[in-house]
Amino acid sequence: MSSVHELNFLKEKIQELKDQGVYRKLPVLEGPNEAEVILNGKKVINLSSNNYLGFANHPRLKKAAIAAVEKYGAGAGAVRTIIGNMDIHEELEEILAKFKREEAAMVFQSGFNCNAGTIQAITGKGDLIVSDELNHASIIDGTRLSRADKAIFKHSDMDHLEKVLKENRDKYENILIITDGVFSMDGDIAKLPEIVELAEKYEAMTYVDDAHGSGVLGESGRGTVDHFNLHGRVDFSIGTLSKAIGVVGGYVAGSNTMQEWLNHRGRPILFSTSLPPAAVGAIIEAIKMLMESTEYTDRLWDNAKYFKQKLGKLGFDTGNSQTPITPVIIGDEAKTMEFSRKLFENGVFVSGIVFPTVPKGTGRVRCMVTAGHTKEQLDRAVDIFEKVGKEMNILK
Ligand SMILES: *Cc1c(COP(=O)(O)O)cnc(C)c1O
């Protein structure tokens, strides 16, 4: 047998990961994603999911998923441009457009491929993409797939953004400014009103990836654009259906023109099978629930404030988050990972996030509070934070 099949070049790289102490195995979850879970065989309070509203295992979503399977089957059977566009896919886009208060929506199979497919479809040679330095990996990949040039502005630095726009306006045909709506590592919100002002001043288009804003910010989770009441002034408003909505998928909300174009040139629409009926049925139900009441988003914010306040009172540094994302900043990388490990041993799962995902010396555990947590669970989690924090001399 040829030695080429041994993949020695990968074995060497894997060994390097082990030497650097960054090799890991995937944690295994037994059962649904809920406030309390069995992870790697241990019962823990889950402070690490993006299941903001507790929809991932909600009875109404499950029922809708099963009903969709009974009516439409397990799979869509083709890409949308051939025969994989079922009436429920159309229904989903109609309800999403209505929910987002935009003309139209175009649904993709994930938030990741929504960014990868959309950015390359709407930009090309002779254009410039202007991107916040902390934007998500899928935006970076979408930008790489585009033939446009790229410029990065310092995180939420409006003076720097204006400088980039001023210097480049005359050199390019179209300019597209891209930002996350909510930044996932710190929980801060993009300065969207200022970005839109600058975009209009320099005749640039705007693109907001609201993966962590969808289902969280705005009226009943309509997102960052709704939060700032900027309807009609953001050209491409991206949401995920996999985080707060609890299922899987992504979409762009915006104009009919956007929708018409992506129908023809969004490569994941043309070359990848559409979302399965179960997912579509469950998502439609989730959007209906949000349109019926603010109960879920209210509970999410209430829990987040409660938890943040308690941690702050104990003396933890919870950073500058403006959303339910609650970082607890430890600083040192090794200490952060040890804190996370000890929290797990004591019954709380919260993942450690260190360099290179965040700057050196700003290691943190990132707590994701959800509407699904009870106050009792949050209290227990806070007690465990206090115990471990004292043991490790993080708290005095
Ligand atoms: C999670 C995330 C995505 C990817 O969404 P998926 O639906 O999980 O593929 C895209 N952008 C941002 C900012 C995200 O946080």
TrEMBL record:
<dbReference type="InterPro" id="IPR004723">
    <property type="entry name" value="AONS_Archaea/Proteobacteria"/>
</dbReference>
<comment type="function">
    <text>Catalyzes the decarboxylative condensation of pimeloyl-[acyl-carrier protein] and L-alanine to produce 8-amino-7-oxononanoate (AON), [acyl-carrier protein], and carbon dioxide.</text>
</comment>
<dbReference type="InterPro" id="IPR015424">
    <property type="entry name" value="PyrdxlP-dep_Trfase"/>
</dbReference>
<keyword id="KW-0663">Pyridoxal phosphate</keyword>
<dbReference type="GO" id="GO:0009102">
    <property type="term" value="P:biotin biosynthetic process"/>
</dbReference>
<dbReference type="GO" id="GO:0016874">
    <property type="term" value="F:ligase activity"/>
</dbReference>
<keyword id="KW-0436">Ligase</keyword>
<dbReference type="InterPro" id="IPR015422">
    <property type="entry name" value="PyrdxlP-dep_Trfase_small"/>
</dbReference>
<protein>
    <recommendedName>
        <fullName>8-amino-7-ketopelargonate synthase</fullName>
        <ecNumber>2.3.1.47</ecNumber>
    </recommendedName>
</protein>
<dbReference type="InterPro" id="IPR015421">
    <property type="entry name" value="PyrdxlP-dep_Trfase_major"/>
</dbReference>
<keyword id="KW-0808">Transferase</keyword>
<dbReference type="GO" id="GO:0005737">
    <property type="term" value="C:cytoplasm"/>
</dbReference>
<dbReference type="GO" id="GO:0030170">
    <property type="term" value="F:pyridoxal phosphate binding"/>
</dbReference>
<keyword id="KW-0093">Biotin biosynthesis</keyword>
<feature type="modified residue" description="N6-(pyridoxal phosphate)lysine">
    <location>
        <position position="243"/>
    </location>
</feature>
<dbReference type="InterPro" id="IPR050087">
    <property type="entry name" value="AON_synthase_class-II"/>
</dbReference>
<keyword id="KW-0012">Acyltransferase</keyword>
<dbReference type="InterPro" id="IPR010962">
    <property type="entry name" value="AONS_Archaea/Firmicutes"/>
</dbReference>
<comment type="similarity">
    <text>Belongs to the class-II pyridoxal-phosphate-dependent aminotransferase family. BioF subfamily.</text>
</comment>
<dbReference type="GO" id="GO:0008710">
    <property type="term" value="F:8-amino-7-oxononanoate synthase activity"/>
</dbReference>
<dbReference type="InterPro" id="IPR001917">
    <property type="entry name" value="Aminotrans_II_pyridoxalP_BS"/>
</dbReference>
<dbReference type="Pfam" id="PF00155">
    <property type="entry name" value="Aminotran_1_2"/>
</dbReference>
<feature type="domain" description="Aminotransferase class I/classII large">
    <location>
        <begin position="42"/>
        <end position="383"/>
    </location>
</feature>
<comment type="pathway">
    <text>Cofactor biosynthesis; biotin biosynthesis.</text>
</comment>
<comment type="subunit">
    <text>Homodimer.</text>
</comment>
<dbReference type="InterPro" id="IPR004839">
    <property type="entry name" value="Aminotransferase_I/II_large"/>
</dbReference>
